[in-house]
Write a structure and sequence with these properties.
By secondary structure, the chain is an alpha+beta fold. It has helices spanning 9-14, 20-27, 44-76, 89-100, 119-132, 134-141, 144-152, 155-166, 280-317, 329-368, 373-412, 423-430, 440-452, 455-464, 473-495, 499-528, 533-555, 562-569, and strands at residues 79-81, 84-86, 171-174, 190-194, 199-210, 216-222, 233-239, 245-250, 261-274, 319-320, 323-324. The strands form three sheets. Strands 3, 4, 5, 6, 7, 8 and 9 form a seven-stranded mixed β-sheet that branches. A two-stranded antiparallel ribbon has the order 1-2. α3 (44-76) packs antiparallel against α4 (89-100), α5 crosses α9 (280-317) and α15 runs antiparallel to α16 (499-528). It is globular, with a radius of gyration of 24 Å.
């Protein structure tokens, strides 16, 4: 039987990271639930055993249900019937299988019928689901909305909605509009308080909404009359049971076709305020987007895994000139580079998730009691790392996802361009990952301040000071040289004293930092597990070449180069 957890040793490696003990202790709040729920763990080993068993169940459903349904879902797609979404039959089967297994509400507290699992395992589940069907991962992964409610909503709202998510109801985040894509400050969907009805009412249009007809939707709306910026926006929760939102259409997309991307019309739709007024974009959407970017990192890594496995299998089977094509150096090199990028994406995915996990768990604890000075310092440090790593993860994982899908098609040759093989669907599904939840260019905008303020450099130095296997010292030395090169490049750009010059080189500098960080993560893994040695060697060699090119470009550029951009802008 196919099982997307047990067949992936890389996932099992990330279960055993040294930080997991701290993460589980924080999530379980000292295992306080053991006296209230007979299925709550009593200690770390008991918790890890539960996590492993559930990951195996999810892995089996991914391999035996979701993956076999993927081609049919891609072909059938969802439909609009009587102003609402009807999923493809395979999508409905996927949801039924996961609901029967009790696998919704994975991270939600037990008092809301959730499993109270650490975020690491929700991300792991997302990755496996994306490997099976990236479109379905969008529906499954939107449980992130429930986490936002758990973090910011009133107890009344949480008690009303969170158990429904744990029972299998789906979610959506209704942010973008026809005239407000990445610029969410321009959102104009109106929220007004109806005194007679004693509720907020929403009116307007939302567009490009993933799973837009979900049971429970978080909606960004303009609650303050006369405003036109972020300070006039609040967050609301809308219940589909009110039947006050119509699906005008489902977008006909290139890929992820099983996930309904909807245009929605709100007409006096009753809604409840989440948290404080005027904080919708400033606070709550930022939390939502960070969670979504982590989700896209998982989706990208799952797609990369699928692309690599398809290419590897085909390369072993396809015979040319009397031998399998994997024996040709050009193909074996391509596959080796793909594997290194896959391992690198996954290493950054779980490193970032661990950082996010710790600061979020400490935030939840701070609502129950005052944190100690040590805990406050810990939360501050991990918040900074999470803010820095989340955009970098989304940038690198999504770009590598596209690269692996592209290279996999190349290995298949003409056959990969046909619908006879799933790689054609995987290629189409991959293309969205570096666009939605913030394009790669916007991830660079979010990440660049961590270059200029030294967050990345400080973390690189932290990695640099750790102990690695002696036989890998040559790899360590390369990374040290790459760090010195990076520092020199950043110094040149920053000391120019021109913000446009920083923006001009931002992507080069962010990617230079990423190659070093990923190199260190793989170096650490290589010292612990022999299987990672090739990936560490190959990735660092690749990163070394990429960084050398970026450093050379920066070294030979000046502020005068900005004139070239101005010339392009003036073209008609």
């Amino acid at each position: 039987m196919a099982n997307f957890f047990s067949d992936n040793k890389d996932l099992q490696y990330h279960m055993n990271h040294p930080l997991m003990k701290r993460i589980v202790e924080l999530k379980e709040k000292g295992y306080a639930d053991k006296d209230l729920y007979d299925y709550a763990p009593v200690d770390f080993e008991d918790a890890q055993d539960s996590y492993r068993r559930v990951m195996e169940i999810i892995g089996e459903i991914c391999g035996e249900v979701i993956a076999p349904n993927a081609e049919g879902v891609d072909h059938d797609g969802p439909k609009v019937v009587d102003d609402h979404v009807v999923y493809a039959p395979g999508t409905a089967q996927n949801i039924e299988a996961l609901t029967k297994a009790g696998l919704f509400g994975l991270t939600l507290p037990r008092k809301y019928e959730g499993l109270n699992f650490p975020l690491v395992y929700f991300v792991m589940a997302n990755e496996m689901v994306a490997r099976a069907d990236a479109g379905f991962e969008n529906i499954w992964g939107l449980q992130d909305c429930a986490e936002t409610l758990n973090e910011f909503a009133s107890e009344e709202i949480k008690a009303k909605y969170l158990p429904r998510v744990s029972r299998g109801e789906t979610c959506a985040m209704d942010l973008t509009e026809p005239d407000a894509g990445s610029d969410l400050q321009a959102v104009m969907l109106k929220a007004h308080w109806d005194e007679a009805k004693g509720t907020w009412l929403l009116n307007g249009v939302k567009r490009f909404i993933t799973n837009g007809d979900g049971h429970i939707s978080l909606v960004l709306a303009r609650s303050e009359e006369g405003t036109a910026d972020a300070r006039g926006l609040s967050m609301f929760v809308y219940d589909r049971n009110h039947m006050a939102v119509k699906v005008r259409r489902i977008e006909n997309k290139l890929g992820i076709k099983g996930s309904p991307t909807c245009e929605l019309v709100f007409t006096n739709a009753p809604a409840e305020l989440v948290g404080d007024r005027k904080m919708g974009l400033i606070k709550y959407v930022m939390s939502l987007m960070n969670a979504a970017r982590l989700g896209i990192g998982a989706q990208s890594t799952g797609l990369s895994e699928a692309a690599y496995r398809e290419a590897l299998k085909y390369a072993h089977e396809r015979m040319q000139f009397g031998k399998p094509i994997i024996e040709f150096p050009a193909i074996s090199e391509l596959l080796s580079n793909m594997k290194a990028k896959l391992h690198g994406s996954r290493a950054m995915l779980y490193e970032t998730t661990r950082f996010v996990e710790i600061y979020k768990d400490l935030t939840h604890i701070s609502h129950d009691r005052k944190l100690t000075p040590e805990e406050r310092a810990e939360m501050k440090a991990y918040t900074r790392l999470a803010d820095a790593f989340t955009p970098m993860l989304k940038l690198m994982a999504s770009e590598y996802c596209n690269a692996l899908a592209y290279d996999a098609i190349q290995i298949f040759g003409g056959s990969g361009y046909m619908k006879d093989y799933p790689i054609e669907r995987i290629y189409r599904d991959a293309r969205i990952t570096n666009i939605y939840e913030g394009t790669s260019q916007l991830q660079v905008v979010a990440a660049i301040r961590h270059v200029t303020t030294g967050t990345y450099l400080n973390q690189i130095r932290e990695y640099e000071g750790q102990t690695y296997a002696a036989e890998l010292s040559h790899v360590h030395n390369k990374l040290i040289a790459m760090r010195e090169q990076f520092e020199k490049a950043v110094e040149k750009v920053v000391t120019a004293g021109n913000n446009d010059f920083i923006d001009f080189h931002a992507r080069r500098m962010v990617e230079m930092a990423a190659h070093i960080i990923i190199g260190y993560l793989l170096l650490r893994q290589a010292g612990e597990v022999e299987d990672y040695r090739n990936s560490a060697e190959i990735y660092v060699k690749y990163g070394e070449a990429q960084n050398a090119a970026a450093a050379q470009y920066i070294a030979t550029s000046s502020v005068d180069d900005l004139g070239l951009m101005t010339a392009v802008q003036q073209e008609h």
